[in-house]
């Protein structure tokens, strides 16, 4: 039986115009949801089967087999599998000095993140080839995967039409306020953050903001911030960093307090999580 989830990571990502970081595949469960989150790399998903929605910059896109959606660094997003026909998709995470420029040539941008490759099956095969190549971890896989990524992107030269609902219209001032707060927290998570500082920076009343945020997200701003920090910490713990360095990187001045919060959140200490994750992917895209 084919695994529901798989992912491979580039063991030695280089620098340059396009660098593949990881590739994976998942057969999602009904209603499977990711976000709202912000990544610091590019991520493209290609829907192999099923359907779902992708939300970014106030727009909601309905996607089905053959569609692809691009996530840009620093952009708040959310995507959800359909409740009856959940999607199976493949993904590639990448970065690069000219990544955004090259995507713009294909008319793919932060405001036009949906595209359809010329050949659905060929695109899916290229995603699979990159994941397999990274999994082999051979010398030269960085160069080979970058080459395959260029071939893949060329498949989007005649990108499909967008299918958006609402186009962000009709969002209330409160919804825009909450989204702006989520974006701010997603960018500032590595800093020492307080509700007072956040409210002052955004120009909102603290009590009103906290109330509206919880009504729309089901959690307080500080709980949302902790969620972002813990998810980022999971990624960093799979890199060659000490627990103290990871704690500092996600906004904790006290590594012992960080460890307590991490164990409370995931049921394992940072050290135990690192040991359990040894040899597995450092990019946990579908948690």
UniProtKB/TrEMBL annotation:
<dbReference type="InterPro" id="IPR018062">
    <property type="entry name" value="HTH_AraC-typ_CS"/>
</dbReference>
<dbReference type="InterPro" id="IPR018060">
    <property type="entry name" value="HTH_AraC"/>
</dbReference>
<dbReference type="Pfam" id="PF12833">
    <property type="entry name" value="HTH_18"/>
</dbReference>
<dbReference type="Pfam" id="PF02311">
    <property type="entry name" value="AraC_binding"/>
</dbReference>
<keyword id="KW-0804">Transcription</keyword>
<dbReference type="InterPro" id="IPR037923">
    <property type="entry name" value="HTH-like"/>
</dbReference>
<dbReference type="InterPro" id="IPR003313">
    <property type="entry name" value="AraC-bd"/>
</dbReference>
<dbReference type="InterPro" id="IPR020449">
    <property type="entry name" value="Tscrpt_reg_AraC-type_HTH"/>
</dbReference>
<keyword id="KW-0238">DNA-binding</keyword>
<dbReference type="InterPro" id="IPR009057">
    <property type="entry name" value="Homeodomain-like_sf"/>
</dbReference>
<feature type="domain" description="HTH araC/xylS-type">
    <location>
        <begin position="192"/>
        <end position="274"/>
    </location>
</feature>
<protein>
    <submittedName>
        <fullName>AraC family transcriptional regulator</fullName>
    </submittedName>
</protein>
<keyword id="KW-0805">Transcription regulation</keyword>
